[in-house]
Please model this.
Amino acid sequence: MCRRVILYFFAVLTAAGSGCKKSGNFSLTEQLPLEQKQDSTLALQEPDSNGTAFLALGDSYTIGASVGEEERFPFQTKALLEANGKTISSLNYIAFSGWTTTRLQNAINDQKPPDSFGIVTILIGVNDQYQGSELDIAGYRSRFVGLLEKSIQLTGGRRTRVFVLSIPDYSVTPFAAGGNTERIRAEIEGFNQVNKEVAEAYSVNYTDITPISRAAKDDLTLLASDGLHPSGKMYQKWAELLEPQIRAVLP
Model:
């Protein structure tokens, strides 16, 4: 049976801190400016020898704010892998709406996941860009390096099993309408230049999903009902881009 580790955080935008309680499932409820409030229960399962354990690290783009569990890109990627003959023993998340690189690193430290995952994906940075100030591009580089090094460790040092995804461009969404969309786009490009350079330096896989996200400018069906996050349709396109890369490195 899989061991479950539970972590509860309760946070609101104006709170100075958060409460934390540990025991069987991973669960968080919080709200930050870019994200919709979302309740989610995430189970971290021990990898086993009967297949490949998949760990998805990130923020709302990974946990799928405003869509169902089966529409998330990690879930759809897993389904495609299994349809192509790969056995995925478990799908695990350390991800939540509103997380910055710092919050993700803290959550990983709290969870203490094992170093035996067969696949690790990481998509993080949009909230660093959105919140700005001390979470600028220069600081993002060092924080992302730390997260990528940890991601490699979580695969037992197998760099080919780590998959970095670029940050989507939300400047094309209704959420950003009326704002400085040119600045948002330029900053997203800057953050993506950093995570791509770091990924290449560490010889891990890199998947550029940003062009797909920009297609939402002319196709609103690629967005969820909140007018900000991707719909299941967009996540499917991400999965179709990512799955062949993962399949190529699996036995």
The radius of gyration is 17 Å. The mean pLDDT is 84. The CA atoms of residues 95 and 186 lie 25 Å apart.
